[in-house]
Amino acid sequence: MNDMSQDGYVTEDGRQIGGVMMEMKNITLKFGGVVAIEDISFDIREGEIRAIIGPNGAGKSSMLNVISGFYHPQEGEVWFHGTERPAMKPYEVARQGVARTFQNIALFEGMTVLDNVMTGRLTHMKSGLLSQAIWWGKALQEEVKNREVVEKVIDFLEIQSIRKTPVGRLPYGLKKRVELARALAAEPKLLLLDEPMAGMNVEEKEDMSRFILDVNDEFGTTIALIEHDMGVVMDLSDRVVVMDYGKKIGDGTPDEVRNNQDVIDAYLGVAH
Amino acid sequence: MLFRTAGQFKTSYLKDQTLFPVRQDAILLGIILAFAWVIFPLTASEFTFQTLLIPVLVYSLAALGLNILTGYAGQLSLGTGAFMGVGAYACYKMITIFPEMNLLVAVLMSGLFSAFIGVLFGLPSLRIKGFYLAIATLAAQFFLVWLFEKWAWLYNYNASGAIQVPHVEMLGTPVAGPQAASMTQYYFVLVVVTLMTILAINLTRGTQGRIWKATRDMDIAAELIGINLLKSKLTAFAVSSYIVGVSGALFVFLWRGAAEPNLFDIPISFRILFIAIIGGLGSIMGNYMGAILIVALPVVLKTLPETFGIPISSATVEHLNVMVVGALIVFFLIIEPHGLARLWTLIREKFIIWPFPH
């Protein structure tokens, strides 16, 4: 790895990356006899775009699920903002400021785009049932205040024209964007993207890449993403973790990873 | 033309979030409320009150409760009848223990008992979903009806095993019991139903509504964006059972006047489920439409042949009713799974752009 101090580093395009935000220490995750993740350690730094790549079945999504608290590793520690995170329920992790999107779109189909994005604000809403039932006081203030935040996100992702459309009626590419909007509405510290470009055409990929870079640039959101499109990964990310069969086989800048013999072997195969 | 929305601009988020962003909807509701509050009571006969107006309100309230659980939070329940029973018996016990108690307070409090029981039987919902949960709530149905029968304290050791509504007065007017006038009872029910509807509308359109709908549509995603699923489901069970319990209390105190345990058996649970399905799951308005259909249908089937002079026995009407309701349910499940409410939404959308097709 290049000259990385404890306080961060400067990327090629001149962005200052901060200290460690999340650190995975010796994570091992098993499902019965199947070892999905074996003794993997890596860190995600403040303001960074961190990619996790690897062939199918490498354990990338499992890794993301460990970060978002959906799976609990049998061994290893997850450190977040300098403290060890105990085994938490996914909703508690979300309240700590970790938001995510899903490989297979997981939107609330029966609700409008606006309502879907508003659910992203739930971690910021605290009004009681009674106040909501009479639609007065705190609940009403919250509704309007959060709507303003949501509208900013809707503007940012250019989905104003569909805000009152039920999500079920939208085409695939837009659904992906709405999902990103929902995650962004939470104003996360760490944004996890599980294959944000899957199934998209070139134009949609370009749009999505632009949004990801803009999110990182304008809000300073730290992003960890899984992606199969190598062109996208190499262009977007600051550092890349490469996994294969549950093991980490490479970690570093895109250039370092590209020239790593293990990585080349994993992707192209080796002669036996 | 009537529903043209052109020229109605919203300049603040507050205005955009009002209940009726389209002015015509508010006018339409105003007309309906005028009918419910003024015109119906003034013109209705004793028969209309007892067979149409009061039952429609009571059933729609029960369906509203079920709809919050099934239509909004996505938890299937077959225990509605039993939860109505809990409300009814709770109200009966409160009124007989404290005869001086205000009936409105008693009715509103009886919901709390069924909410508590509802939460207890909702606990399995975190582990089981769909049909399996329906079976779990069926357990509530059988157990509670059995309890109503066996626990003599509940019906004050009455020899008949039934509860008989005592004479209750409010502000010097009899509201429950044999001496109560139908119009008084109708207004009492209408007040409660209106109040519950307003609360339910607000809950379902705000934060809690979004939490419920998220739980219904995609529970894994809901949990990962910060929703505590257990809390969401149990809140749905609590609010739903509360409303169902209140409707149960109204059912016995303001309409039937007496109740045996088997009144709360599975047929009434199904009846309310049908109302919710025909009206439209996930809709508030649908409950009223469904209740009107289910309650009015037998009456119409009975009176229509009479007015045309066709002799038809009441037994035939009964059978005809069952057949028509069955056919309607099949029809709706095929044609419009979202019920009468969705049908109205589609018509309304057509009206807005009329006379243009798009």
In short:
Chain A: InterPro entries: AAA+_ATPase, ABC_AA/LPS_Transport, ABC_transporter-like_ATP-bd, BCA_ABC_TP_C, P-loop_NTPase. The complex is a heterodimer of chains A (272) and B (358). Chain A is α/β, with parallel strands linked by helices and 272 residues long.
Q: In DSSP terms, counting alpha (H) and pi (I) runs of 4 or more, how many helices of chain B?
A: 14
Shape of chain A: globular
The proportion of residues forming helix of chain B, as a percent range, comes to over 70%
Secondary-structure class of chain B: mainly alpha
At the first level of CATH, the class of the largest domain in chain A is: Alpha Beta
Radius of gyration of chain B: 21 Å
Mean pLDDT of chain A: 88
H/E element order of chain A: EEEEEHEEHEHHHHEHEHEEHH
Shape of chain B: globular
Total number of domains of chain B: 1
Question: In CATH terms, what is the architecture of chain B?
Answer: Orthogonal Bundle
Main pleated-sheet profile of chain A: 6 strands, mixed
Largest sheet of chain B: 2 strands, antiparallel
Largest interface: pair, residues per side: A-B, 40 and 31 residues
Low-confidence stretches of chain B: none
Give me the side-by-side strand order of the main sheet of chain A: 8-9-10-5-11-12
Low-confidence stretches of chain A: none
GO molecular function (chain A): ATP binding
Organism (chain A): Pseudohalocynthiibacter aestuariivivens
Keywords (chain A): ATP-binding, Nucleotide-binding, Transport
Protein name (chain A): ABC transporter ATP-binding protein
